[in-house]
Amino acid sequence: MSGPSWSERLFGGLKRTSERLGENLSGLTGKSRLDEDDLDRIEEALITADLGPGMAARIRDRLAERRDVAANGTDELRQVVAEEIAAVLRPVAEPLDIDAFPRPQVILVIGVNGSGKTTTIAKLAHLFQEQDYGVMLVAGDTFRAAAIGQLKVWAERLGVPIVSGPEGGDAAGIVFDAVKQATATGIDVLIVDTAGRLQNKRELMDELAKIKRVLGRLNPAAPHDVVLVLDATTGQNALSQLDAFREVAGVTGLVMTKLDGTARGGVLVAAAERHGLPIHAIGIGETLDDLRPFDADEIAGIIAGNIR
Question: Considering only CA atoms, which of 6, 14, 35 is closest in space to residue 304?
Fold first, then answer.
């Protein structure tokens, strides 16, 4: 007997966000016209669901143009909310394509400790393996022995090579060796774990700059991607991390994890509205299959309560 499908698990993950929003929309059923108090209440509900003030204001403005939308029940109201969310998510729903030439495509993965960064690297590697790409991992977070050890365990489980060094070693030197090995052995994708010490921005910026300089000597186009892992359960704090990492690391895309364990799933929408960066994949669990590209309309429908 097979388990729940990806869509079913995604629905389960975002259900709490949808229910929180739905409770605030249900009281408007049957009103002939939405008044300013109604619009205020909806806007507050959207912010409470972590969709962010920008997205909330956007939806409020749309509803203000259609004040009679709740007259026939909440379904039409939910549809307007879903349409606005989907309009923001569609442009950013971009799977991470492997198209670098020459190979390998170098992906730096960044994020604060505890965001699920190392596990996400393993899930990304698995995703690429399913597409028949050769993958190599690099243990570039040399400040934490636990991070090196955890990545080695994942590499063994996935059956992929890993390049690592001692705790406290030179991350840039390790990355340099890894690119040479990957090039020599025909690896398609090189995924690099990096330190997550955001509390010392200057130190992190210097280290990432050094890694990029070293990569540039071997391949001027590298790194091809700088992917930030964000933990949805941290809500608005995830957006603060995004602001900071964009400043220090030149983030090119996002992965949002732990959408299954929070009523703050709206932060996915807030990140899209605020930054417009590609969101390559979302995570809804702990197994290797729990990271996937997403369908913007499906996410919008679930959050708005149209898919239930």
Answer: 14
Beta-carbon neighbour count of residue 95 at 10 Å? 15
Query: Which of the two residues, 136 and 48, has the higher pLDDT score?
Result: 136
- Are the beta carbons of 231 and 147 closer than 8 angstroms? no
**Please, are residues 99 and 105 in contact by the beta-carbon 8 Å criterion?**
yes
- In whole angstroms, give the CA distance from residue 33 to residue 69: 7
191, β-bridge pairs: 107, 137
Tell the burial category of 76 from Cβ atoms under 10 Å away from its Cβ (0-12, 13-18, 19+). middle
pLDDT in tens, 47-86: 888 899 999 999 999 999 988 877 666 788 889 999 999 9
Stated as kind and residue range, the H or E segment containing 230 is strand 225-231
- The per-residue DSSP string of 234-255 comes to GTHHHHHHHHHHHHHH---EEE
CB atoms within 10 A of CB 216: 12
**Integer Cα distance of 213 and 261 in angstroms:** 38
Helix (H, G, I), strand (E, B) or coil at 129: helix
Q: Beta-carbon neighbour count of residue 24 at 10 Å?
A: 16
What residues contact residue 101 under an 8 Å CB cut-off, 6+ apart?
none
Alpha-carbon 48 to chain mean position: 20
Edge-first strand order for the sheet with 162-163 is 162-163, 135-139, 189-193, 105-110, 225-231, 253-257, 279-283, 291-292
pLDDT grade for 199, boundaries at 50, 70 and 90: low
* pTM flag (> 0.70): yes
Instruction: Say whether pLDDT at 222 is over 70.
Output: yes
Contact 155, 191 (CB under 8 A): no
Q: What are the phi and psi torsion angles at 204 (to 5°)?
A: -65, -40
